[in-house]
Amino acid sequence: MPKPIVLIAEELSPATVDALGTDFDIRDVDGTDRPALLAALATAHAVLIRSATHIDAEAIAAAPHLKVVARAGVGLDNVDIAAATTAGVMVVNAPTSNIISAAELTIGHILSLARHIPAAHASLAAGEWKRSKFTGVELYEKRVGIIGLGRIGALIAARLQAFGVEIVAYDPYVTEARALQIGATLVPLDELLSTSDFVTIHMPKTPETTGMIGAAELKSMKKTAFVINVARGGLIDEAALAAALRDGEIAGAGIDVFTSEPPTDDLLTSAPNIVVTPHLGASTDEAQERAGVSVAKSVRLALDGELVPDA
Ligand code: MLT
């Protein structure tokens, strides 16, 4: 009997393939090459993806044998869950696999902005020695506003305690008691924006959250404040952010995620006082191993017709 076909559509850790074992016919395809993806899906029983591959209704329709879509990471905004469910295709992810990595990258962006680390590096590497130009600010006694106090937001709050900052948060789904346990005080979004020195956003991307930080919200922030987005491109309106940076409405931004990846223009990447990284939140050895092994186990269970437990 032929082995079930498991399609790997993005680069995953070697541990993923080890965890899949030898019971499957494992094939690779570039998930961003749409015609190649659709052709490969025609025979696939499972497909493993990260964030670059779009498993939408068209992809589901092209995959008559598909039983499971496995997202090696947290976000499911690149999977049409409704279309999958209608077609009887299970969707699994690895919701805790990369939360520490995402939280640590956020702290990295905060420190990079506060102390101008990337710009100072570029200046010295270009042969300059400019100390006063790169005078920064301490985090100590500053106010950090966390929008979205879920798993990643809570890890960031825990790590920030060591810097002696005051933490406020906005999250309509978190209780006052839970926020206090995390070390944060819940405040309305407008208060968070107008009083924080650093604002970091950790919301899923949905129609409600897309563009939730736009021109008006950026204008309401302190001119000395920094904004960080390591969550999803488009939560902060990119054109509004570029304009706010150019007009000096805020002091700087740390951006890891983009509406279109890679970005199709340099609107944001060329803005002043910005630190950009190419969607690296989950890109650590540890997170990739956890995510790959977790979804490989779920794929094995799903293709064996077993119950896949919640991760
Ligand atoms: C996630 O949603 O977990 C990350 O975006 C994963 C990734 O980088 O692939």
Automatic annotation (TrEMBL):
It comes from the Bacteria. This is D-3-phosphoglycerate dehydrogenase. Belongs to the D-isomer specific 2-hydroxyacid dehydrogenase family. Residues 6-311 form the D-isomer specific 2-hydroxyacid dehydrogenase catalytic domain. Residues 107-281 form the D-isomer specific 2-hydroxyacid dehydrogenase NAD-binding domain. Catalyzes the reversible oxidation of 3-phospho-D-glycerate to 3-phosphonooxypyruvate, the first step of the phosphorylated L-serine biosynthesis pathway. Also catalyzes the reversible oxidation of 2-hydroxyglutarate to 2-oxoglutarate. The lineage of its organism: Bacteria, Bacillati, Actinomycetota, Actinomycetes, Micrococcales. The chain holds residues 1 to 311 of 530 of the full protein. The keyword Zinc does not apply. GO terms for biological process: L-serine biosynthetic process. One of its GO terms (molecular function) is phosphoglycerate dehydrogenase activity. It catalyses: (R)-2-hydroxyglutarate + NAD(+) = 2-oxoglutarate + NADH + H(+); (2R)-3-phosphoglycerate + NAD(+) = 3-phosphooxypyruvate + NADH + H(+). It comes from Pseudolysinimonas yzui. Its EC number is 1.1.1.95. Pathway: Amino-acid biosynthesis; L-serine biosynthesis; L-serine from 3-phospho-D-glycerate: step 1/3. Keywords: Amino-acid biosynthesis, NAD, Oxidoreductase, Serine biosynthesis. It is an enzyme of class 1 (oxidoreductase).
